[in-house]
Amino acid sequence: MPASRDFRRTALAGAAVAAALTASAIVVACGGSGGGSGASAKLSVTDSYIPLPAGASGDDSMAAGYLTVRNTGGAADTLVRVSSPGAGSVSMHQSTDTTMREVDSLPVPADGTLQLSRGGTHLMIMGWQKPPAVGDQLELDLTFAHSGTITVEVPVKPLTYRPGS
Amino acid sequence: MKFLSSRRRAAGAATLALTAALALTACGSGTTKSAGPVAVVSQQAQNSPYQGTVLAKHFDKPDLVLTDTSGQPFDLRKQTAGKTTLLYFGYTSCPDVCPTTMGDIGVALQKLPADQQAEINVVFVSTDPQVDTPKVLRTWLDSFNKNFIGLTGDLTTVKAAAQSLGILVEDPIVNKDGTVTSTHGAQVLAFQPSDDKAHVVYLSDTSTATFEHDLPLFAKGVAA
Ligand SMILES: [Cu+2]
Fold first, then answer.
1. Has residue B14 got a pLDDT over 70?
2. A164: in domain
3. Phi and psi dihedrals of A36, rounded to 5?
4. Alpha-carbon distance B208 to A164, whole Å?
5. What CATH number is associated with residue A141?
6. Are residue A80 and residue A10 in the same domain, yes or no?
7. Residue ranges of E strands in chain A
8. Which residue range forms the structural domain that includes residue A9?
9. Which run of H or E residues covers position A30?
10. A64 and A143 fall within a common domain
11. What is the CATH superfamily name and number for domain B2-219?
């Protein structure tokens, strides 16, 4: 079963990265969140993707979007708005145990990350100008309360894609 | 409800333990066999070969007759008897949790040899039957696996079946923008052919790796 072994290795690497990430985030948080007056957020966006919606047809497609916002600065920020020139609306959602609800904003902690991932916090992208296809890129404009707008080109991935797979 | 929340906690603990084991294994060395430690941890956590949460209460398979994706009546008990059956309640315009769970199961199932795949039924019951016609269901399910069974029909019947399994299903809500939000428990219940009762549950935060670990066990009829 070489395929499954490969998969496992990838999964392990992912787990190690996740664990390392969590550990470092905790360490930083323990260091104190004093911030001070000079601190500011330093944001970058990574690991963004849009899984191709299942049974996608026409422009009524609704897709979820996932990404990670890293903040290496000493001050917190807040994601307050997401929009796209290629889609009618982009909203921020949080999946709960039984449903999902729209949220107005999402916090980006100082020296921390805001992670949007499957089964959790996600973007809902509706009103696609052109039906999404694997390999397409969709521009997303992420507006933060303090850091202005960051524009990312988000790739459309296969339906069952998960980062690291 | 009490039942549900305690299950959730149990699953959370198992997941934590699993994560720890994976991280440890990964740090140890790239050449060790990875299956060992993971299996050990899950046994410690719940004393079962399965990584899913083993149910203390073995639910009966609901007596449910709905319409399948070919438009024919489908008797869940009769037509899934004698095979492992993974049962999930959801809706096709669900953008996050439903496709993630169906996709993870689909990916895990595809890794099995064909004869083992044939031992496992995956049944998706719609919680939004107005939108989820047999045709809509088929198109949606085909994205994951052409053999997945899709059922739709009277929502009251669906709600009663879900309730008998401790799964919450509410009437769908049409939002201002025309989209539909359905409130539904996102757990996958696994019924085993030994007694056609539910023995293992998977919550919505289940990883693909957990399904990849457990599906071969189901296919071989390993007791939970
Ligand atoms: Cu959503």
1. no
2. no
3. 75, 170
4. 12
5. 2.60.40.1890
6. no
7. 43-51, 62-71, 77-83, 87-95, 100-103, 106-108, 113-115, 121-128, 137-144, 148-157
8. 1-32
9. helix A2-30
10. yes
11. Glutaredoxin (3.40.30.10)
Quick: pLDDT tens for A23-66.
Answer: 333 333 323 334 445 789 999 999 999 999 987 554 467 899 99
How large is the ipTM? 0.74
Q: Which residue has 């083993």 as its token pair?
A: B54
Question: Helices H, strands E: what count in chain A?
Answer: 1, 10
The answer on A49 and A12 residing in a single domain is no
Both structure tokens of A120: 């959790």
| Radius of gyration for the alpha carbons in chain A, expressed in angstroms and rounded | 17
Least Cα separation, residue B74 to chain A (angstroms): 23
Q: Is there a contact between B179 and A126 if contact means CB atoms under 8 Å apart?
A: yes
Asked if B105 contacts A160 with a C-beta cutoff of 8 angstroms, the reply is no
Q: Is the pLDDT of residue B9 over 70?
A: no
DSSP 3-state of A22: helix
pLDDT digits 0-9 by tens, B64-91: 999 999 999 999 999 999 999 999 999 9
The minimal CB distance from A55 to the residues B96, B104, B139 is found for B139
Q: Report whether A16 contacts B23 (CB < 8 A).
A: yes
Number of structural domains found in chain A: 2
User: Which residue of chain B is at minimal alpha-carbon distance from A65?
Assistant: B96
User: Does A15 share its domain with A61?
Assistant: no
